[in-house]
């Protein structure tokens, strides 16, 4: 989807090591064993080594074998591979060339972009490679060259999109602990966090402001709490580019998927009240709850609605493209079209419609006579926002935008920061438990303080019992080696200590909230531009550096992200024709229709070609693909990256849109 974030709301960067520089890696495997020459299917996640003895973890169910200098890992679906190849070479480019010969000498993917990355994890040099694939290939191909001494380990990612998406957490499992032989990582386990005095807070303030300027984000707000006291709650920059109003601790931003944790807090309150428990079948609460698979429907308990563990893949296109006239009830009906692609509890697969169902289930139990959306809103207000004193937090867009609020920004086709339309952000309203809340740093800090206090309010009164509150943090499904997903919350032990957090992504709004339960420290960061997604990971890292005197990596991570972002936009821009090629555009129909996603109206505004999807629209650039096909790609700020491939056949005009695991056909309509 958007070139900055592969899918909306996604809080995890799982492709090879492309984003590992933005967060510190996990702990070293406790043991490793040599990888067999003959193919072996792993019965469990298993520490193994490359030919040179560098450690990694092989995922359960994958086949592993050694071919010369290459260790090849193949998922159960076949046809996709990760290769770890050890070679001696004079530089990264030569190492990658050797690795491809060892893995697949016939591979001929055109190189799209090669970028240097900060040295991390004991590797003395790292360089990443992206390869050009056409939409019809339905494949992702990349490589990372890592040097230790005179030897290189090259990690090749060559996977079908559907497989890579479904098994993203297992891919992360492999790369989380790809470490040089004998290397031990930095860990903060057993250390005492420093008190965040004025000097240390100034280090955080300077880091955020420098990152904001480097990434040209108009506005950022952050909040810091330690030992029950708010130490900092303020903003940097402006609410809207070109206008003077400053961001501060009361500025409202869309907090997107951070809403999920607050939704499960509402459910926890209902569990505490005895309305149901975490193991209650959902069909007992919502008789019309249906998934596309009857067996999965029967298995879904309350705790599974927002666990990303049911095997249902991300399926956001329906609510993004059917926003006009969409309601909470229609979102619930969409669930009946969703089919699992992995076994129940087997793999992390993020589902916004399921998260929406979680909120609507809780609201319906509390207010059974009200419409799903109204019942959810009332339940959140009475059980979460009012008791915590979150006076400015709301699902009412009009109310939020009448007050002090930030506006969204994105990048135009040439990478320039500009104001983005709010239109796409309204599409989440019918599925609002998944991510439609507006809030401020001051309000979200009140939530974080309650989490750190294990259910107590600042005045010492108990808001919620510990048991239902903490149940939300327990692992429901793994996210690689050292992170797990619970109920709308992630717990990351990457640095040897638990960091509980969740992020949020909507058009022009990217955020994170996090807390360290063992050290009584929490933080919130809210941003109002798409490149803000590149601040939040380093912000978390910088907080830990300041607390524990960690290695200074965060600032360099931001610098590398800026460079990679600019180079990536430039590489993509070379392939795009904007305005769209007039000849190709002239062959388009005036209207297309998809049974699943509705209509596209095609129009011209001067030389530009525009696609109107009903609730929102975008200019479309054209691209001639290597396989001879033509694509039209949305390029308006914030909604860039939706790719429609021309699929005309037998005189009938049609377009195809894909996400990682689904394909949607649009036929010419009258």
From TrEMBL:
Gene3D superfamilies: DD-peptidase/beta-lactamase superfamily. Residues 25-37 have a biased composition (Low complexity). Residues 1-18 form the signal peptide. It comes from the Bacteria. The keyword Signal applies. Pfam families: Beta-lactamase. Residues 205-532 form the Beta-lactamase-related domain. Residues 25-53 are annotated as: Disordered. Keywords: Signal. Residues 43-52 have a biased composition (Polar residues). This is CubicO group peptidase (Beta-lactamase class C family).
């Amino acid at each position: 989807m958007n070139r900055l974030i592969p899918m909306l709301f996604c809080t995890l960067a799982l492709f090879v090591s492309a984003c590992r520089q933005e967060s510190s890696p996990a702990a070293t495997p406790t043991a490793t064993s040599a990888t067999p020459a003959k193919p072996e299917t792993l019965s469990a996640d298993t520490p193994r080594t490359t030919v040179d003895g560098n450690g990694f973890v092989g995922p359960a169910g994958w086949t592993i074998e050694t071919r010369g200098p290459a260790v090849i890992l193949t998922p159960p679906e076949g046809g996709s591979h990760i290769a770890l190849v050890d070679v001696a070479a004079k530089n990264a480019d030569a190492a990658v060339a050797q690795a491809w010969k060892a893995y697949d000498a016939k591979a001929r993917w055109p190189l799209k972009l090669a970028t240097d990355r900060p040295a991390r994890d004991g590797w003395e040099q790292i360089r990443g490679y992206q390869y050009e694939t056409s939409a019809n290939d339905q494949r992702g191909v990349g490589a990372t060259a890592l040097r230790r001494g005179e030897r290189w380990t090259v990690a090749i990612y060559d996977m079908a999109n559907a497989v890579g998406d479904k098994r993203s957490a297992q891919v992360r499992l492999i790369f989380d602990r790809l470490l040089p032989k004998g290397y031990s990582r930095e860990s903060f386990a057993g250390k005492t966090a420093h008190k965040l005095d004025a000097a240390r807070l100034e280090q955080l303030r300077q880091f955020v402001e420098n990152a904001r300027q480097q990434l040209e984000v108009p506005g950022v707000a952050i909040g810091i709490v330690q030992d029950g006291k708010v130490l900092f709650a303020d903003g940097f920059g402006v609410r809207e580019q070109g206008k003077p109003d400053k961001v501060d601790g009361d500025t409202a931003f869309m907090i997107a998927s951070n809403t999920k944790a607050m939704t499960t807090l509402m459910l926890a309150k209902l569990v505490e009240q005895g309305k149901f428990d975490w193991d209650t079948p959902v069909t007992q609460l919502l008789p019309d709850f249906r998934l596309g698979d009857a067996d999965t429907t029967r298995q879904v308990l309350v705790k599974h609605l927002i666990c990303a563990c049911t095997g249902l893949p991300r399926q956001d296109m329906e609510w993004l493209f059917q926003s006009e006239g969409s309601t909470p009830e229609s979102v619930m009906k969409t669930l009946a079209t969703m089919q699992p692609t992995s076994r129940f509890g087997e793999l992390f697969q993020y589902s916004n419609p399921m998260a929406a169902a979680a909120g609507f289930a809780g609201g319906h139990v509390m207010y059974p006579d009200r419409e799903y959306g109204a019942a959810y809103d009332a339940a959140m207000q009475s059980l979460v926002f009012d008791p915590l004193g979150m006076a400015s937090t709301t699902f009412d867009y009009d109310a939020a935008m009448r007050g002090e609020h930030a506006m969204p920004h994105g990048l135009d086709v040439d990478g320039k920061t500009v104001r983005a339309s709010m239109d796409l952000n309204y599409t989440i309203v019918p599925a609002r438990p998944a991510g439609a809340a507006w809030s401020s740093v001051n309000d979200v800090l009140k939530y974080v303080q309650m989490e750190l206090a294990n259910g107590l309010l600042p005045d010492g009164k108990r808001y919620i019992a510990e048991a239902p509150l903490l149940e939300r943090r327990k692992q429901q499904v793994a996210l690689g080696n050292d992170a797990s997903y619970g109920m709308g919350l992630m717990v990351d032990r990457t640095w040897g200590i638990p960091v509980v957090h969740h992020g949020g992504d909507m058009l022009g709004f990217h955020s994170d909230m996090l807390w360290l339960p063992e050290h009584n420290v929490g933080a919130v960061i809210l941003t109002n531009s798409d490149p803000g997604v590149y601040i939040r990971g380093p912000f978390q890292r910088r907080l830990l550096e300041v607390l524990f005197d960690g290695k200074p990596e965060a600032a360099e991570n931001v610098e590398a992200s800026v460079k990679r972002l600019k180079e990536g936009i430039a590489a993509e821009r070379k392939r795009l024709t904007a305005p769209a090629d007039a000849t190709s555009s002239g062959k388009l129909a005036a209207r297309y229709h998809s049974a699943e996603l509705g209509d596209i109206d095609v129009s011209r505004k001067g030389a530009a070609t525009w696609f109107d999807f009903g609730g929102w629209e975008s200019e479309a650039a054209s691209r001639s693909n290597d396989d001879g096909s033509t694509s039209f790609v949305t390029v308006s700020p914030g909604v860039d990256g939706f790719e429609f491939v021309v699929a005309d056949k037998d005189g009938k005009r049609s377009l195809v849109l894909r996400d990682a695991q689904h394909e949607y056909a649009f036929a010419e309509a009258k």
